[in-house]
Design goal:
Blueprint lengths: L8 H8 L3 H10 L6 E2 L5 E2 L2 H16 L4 H40 L2
Antiparallel strand pairs: 1-2
Helix pairs in contact: 3-4
Length: 108
């Protein structure tokens, strides 16, 4: 990330890969997700908020957890969930690289 202090909802939506309405919904479902708001109710997300959103995305969109189950996982085992998400992202990256190599080999 760029090292900015705050990101708006549109920027975060692009980083996470979901619509802003999904981010607003997740705010209502996950008590630990509370971005700062300005006087005009403009959300300002920190990098910590974005990391939590990535965790939520991984649990809900990638692994298929229901909201309640994802909330329980984060509150009970956040450290473990973060480690699993990092490992999963690493494995997805390796898979993508292997698929690219296979595609190149198939073209030979």
């Amino acid at each position: 990330m760029s090292g900015k202090l705050y990101y708006n909802i549109k920027e975060v939506s692009g980083i996470i890969g979901v619509e802003p309405s999904v981010l607003r919904f997740w705010e209502s479902q996950f008590p630990t997700l509370k971005p700062k708001t300005t006087g005009r109710n403009v959300r300002q997300y920190t990098e910590k908020d974005i990391e939590l959103l990535k965790l939520i995305y991984n649990l809900v969109k990638v692994r298929g957890f229901k909201i309640e189950a994802a909330r329980k996982q984060i509150s009970a085992n956040r450290g473990v969930v973060e480690k699993k998400a990092k490992v999963q992202q690493l494995l997805i990256g390796v898979r993508d690289e292997l698929m690219a190599i296979k595609k190149e080999l198939d073209q030979l």
